[in-house]
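Possible race condition, two jobs.
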Amino acid sequence: QKWPETLSCSVNDKELFHISPPQKGHKRRDAPKKISVQLRSGTNSFDVKVTDPCLKRFVLAIVRTTPQKVRQVCTTVPVASQEVCRQRLGQLMFSSMLESTGDEVHAAGSDRCKLTCPITIARMVTPVRGLKCMHLQCFDLVGYLVSNLRMGAFNRRWICPVCDLVL
C-alpha cells in the first residue's frame, strides 16, 4: 500500500487527516487511517483531495471493520487434512532436492524441522505455514497472530516470519 504524493480527507466538513509529500531521503509509513471518530449516525459527507503525478494507479476504499480477538481469527484459518499435509510435505521435500546444487553436504537429520516457533521461541501448539511458502519450517498460529496484532509497522503485517512472503 502506498499513499499518493499528497492526500487530505475531510469528513462532515472537518479535516480528518492530511498526508504530506515524503521528505527527501526518508521513507514514509503508509498505514490505513481510522475515520470512525468523525462519523455520525445517518448520512456522512466525504471530501478527498489528492495530488500525484500518476493518479491512475491509486484506488481509495472505505472499509468497515470489526476488531476480532485472536481466538476468533484462529477459528477462520482453514485446517488441511492429514493427506493434504503429506502431499505438501512430499512436494516441498522433492522441490528442495531438485533445487540443490549437489555441492551441499546433507547431514543425518537435515530433513527435520524445529518444533519451536521462530517468533515465540516456544514449542508450537498449532503449527502453520503459508500456502505459497516453499519451506518446511512452521510457526505457531497464536504467536503469529499476537505478533501481528502488536506490530506497529502495517507494511510488515501478514508476512511469513520465515521467508517474507505475503500470507
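Job #2 (started ~2 s after job #1):
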Amino acid sequence: MGAQPIDFDGDVNLFHFVLLRCVGKGAFGKVRVVQHKQTRDLYALKYINKAKCVKMKAVPNVIQERRLLEEIDHPFIVNLRYAFQDDENCFFVLDLMLGGDLRFHLERLGSMPEDTVRFYMAQLSSALSFLHDLGIMHRDLKPDNILLDERGNAHLTDFNIAVHFGERKLNGVAGSMAYMAPEILARRGYTYHIDWWSLGVCAYELIFGRRPFRGRSNADLTKSITMDPIRWPEDTEKRCSKAGVQVLRGGRVAGVWCERIPPEPALAPRVWLHRSPTTIMPDVRPCATPRLTPRLASGFLERDSAKRLGCRPNGEGFQDIKRHEWFKPIDWETLETKEQVPPFTPDGYYNRKKG
C-alpha cells in the first residue's frame, strides 16, 4: 500500500512539512528548518516540549505567546505562520531567519558601525510602534532577541514574556536585567515606555561594544541603571555622531563626557523576579556633565519615561523618532517595504556557527 495522501485542506500537522536541518535550541526544545510540502516555502519549526513547560511552570507563558503572535504580522517581526501540537510537543511554525542574532554578530565583530545600528534601530522602532498600537509590550528586547534574515534585515523575536497593556501600569519584573528600564527596577510601575529604553541600551551596546550601565551584582546594576550617569567611551566622537549621542542621552550635546571604562563583567542573567529596594540613595556624583544648548530633545535613555523618546501617546512618539536628526538618512517608506539594501549582509552564518 502506498502512503496516505496528505489532506492540505484539513488541520495543519507535522506531516505537512519536510523536516530539514536543526539550526538551534530553545528553552523547551530544538528549532529546525522545514519546508511546506505544498507551497515549498521554508520556515523555522520551534519545538516546545510539553513536559518541560510543565516542569518549568511556563505553560501560561507559552499559551500567552501563541495568542499574542496570532495578532501580529509585521515585516520586522518573526511572525507565526502555523501552530499545532501532538502528544509530546507544541509546534510553532515561524518566519525563517538565516542571518543569526545580533548577539552572535556583536561577539564576533566587537561593535558595529553607526550607520548599521541606525538601520536596525529604524526597523525595530517600526516593529515596536506596531506592537504598541496593538497594546502589546515586548519586555525582553536585547541583541539575543533580534534576528537577521539572509539579506540583513532585523526582526524582533521571543514573545515569551510579552503582555498586553492598558491604562493601568504593571508592576511585575520580568526580562533581562541589564536591559530593564529604571521604572521597573525602582518599582514605580511601568507601561510600554520600557521597550524604548531597552532599544536605547541595544543601540549603545551595538555601537560601543558594551552596555551603558553595568554592575558586578544585581544591586550594583540596579544602582547604575536607576541613578548613575551614562558612561561614554573615550573614542565616542570617532564611533558616534552628535546626533547619535543625542538619540540616546537626549539634549543638543556639544561635547561628550568621556572616561576610561574598565572591562565589562559577564552578562547579567535573565531574571524572572528581582527584588530590589524601592528607595536607592547612593552618593553618586558624575565627573562632568555634557554641555547642552538651550534647545533640548529627549533620548531613548531618558529616565523620566514621560519624556523618553518614542513615548508620546497616539503614535506621536514614533513620529518623533522619524523626525529625529539621527534618523534623517532613513527613507521610512522603502525601509518598511524592505526595498532598502541592508548595510550588513550575514553571509555564511550557519557555516561559521558549525565551524
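The domain at 14-94 is CATH 3.30.200.20 (Phosphorylase Kinase; domain 1).
Logs attached separately.
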